């Protein structure tokens, strides 16, 4: 059992399927969780009150705004763990790309994690073990059609993860990535039967990935069990990475 009692954990994009799983698992491990969303409606607030251990705090910020990211970071104690989970994954053919699309993808998927990492590096009061975990994607290595901006930003974030690990290790900050495969959610088989079937056929384990499996990997990376691990991209993909693709 991983014990994160006394640790402060910031999770961006905490109201989606993976975000909720991360919040639940880190809270259950004893961490104080600081949960970011662009909005907190009544249903999401009620979910947090029902599912999470105390202490937790709900935070709002537009990750396209450097000023709001700075205010978000300043409103909490210095984090022991930052999980950059927020991201945009809209389907968008290259022929339809505009400058606004490029900026929006870059600001949320890349610039926000970079800025939060920089803020942490400038704020650490000591050299005790701290961890940044960037939620990447298997598409950082193998692109998909109509995902050019998503794939480009995740690929860039992967390289930033490695660079930050190289530069920030002397401050006691470990920086790692997790690349999930296709995460199972209700209705995905009906909404995307071709992709689901191809992924399952390519997977040595013959299945999709659960959100909790990604969260357990994050728990391990955040804990002292992985104190010598930095600059790693951990694939949680049911083995698809050892195949020729799906």
Strand content: 15-25%
Terminal-residue CA separation: 34 Å
What would you report as the Rg, rounded to the nearest angstrom?
A: 17 Å
- Spatially, the strands of the biggest sheet line up as 3-2-1-4-5-6-7
Overall 3D form? globular
Defining traits:
seven-stranded parallel sheet; alpha/beta; globular
Layout: helices, strands, pairs:
Layout: E1 8-11, H1 17-28, E2 32-37, H2 42-51, E3 56-60, H3 66-74, E4 81-84, H4 99-123, E5 130-135, H5 148-168, E6 173-180, H6 188-191, H7 193-202, H8 211-222, E7 233-236
Parallel strand pairs: 1-2, 1-4, 2-3, 4-5, 5-6, 6-7
Helix pairs in contact: 1-8, 3-4, 4-5
General description of the model:
This protein has about 250 residues and is α/β, with parallel strands linked by helices. Helices cover about 40% and strands about 15% of the residues. The chain contains eight helices and seven strands. The chain has a seven-stranded parallel β-sheet, sandwiched between helices. α4 links the parallel β4 and β5. α1 packs across α8 and α4 packs parallel to α5. It is globular.
Short description:
Helices cover 42% and strands 15% of the residues. It has a seven-stranded parallel β-sheet, sandwiched between helices.
């Amino acid at each position: 059992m991983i014990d994160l009692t006394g640790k402060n954990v910031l999770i961006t994009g905490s109201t989606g399927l993976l975000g909720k799983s991360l919040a639940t698992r880190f809270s259950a491990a004893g961490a104080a969780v600081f949960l970011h969303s662009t909005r907190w409606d009544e249903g999401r607030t009620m979910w947090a009150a029902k599912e999470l251990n105390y202490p937790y705090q709900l935070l709002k910020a537009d990750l396209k705004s450097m000023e709001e990211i700075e205010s978000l970071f300043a409103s909490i104690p210095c984090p022991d763990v930052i999980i950059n989970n927020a991201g945009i994954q809209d389907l968008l053919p290259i022929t339809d790309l505009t400058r606004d699309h490029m900026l929006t993808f870059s600001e949320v998927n890349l610039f926000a994690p970079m800025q939060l990492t920089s803020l942490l590096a400038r704020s650490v009061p000591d050299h005790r073990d701290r961890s940044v975990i960037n939620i990447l994607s298997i598409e950082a290595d193998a692109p998909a059609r109509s995902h050019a901006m998503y794939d480009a930003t995740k690929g860039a974030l992967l390289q930033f993860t490695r660079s930050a690990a190289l530069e920030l290790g002397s401050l006691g900050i470990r920086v790692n990535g997790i690349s999930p495969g296709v995460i199972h959610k209700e209705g995905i088989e009906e909404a995307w039967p071709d992709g689901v079937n191809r992924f399952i056929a390519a997977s040595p384990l013959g299945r999709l990935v659960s959100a909790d499996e990604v969260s357990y990997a994050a728990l391990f990376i955040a804990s002292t069990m992985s104190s010598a691990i930095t600059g790693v991209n951990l694939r949680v993909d049911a083995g698809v990475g050892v195949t020729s693709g799906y």
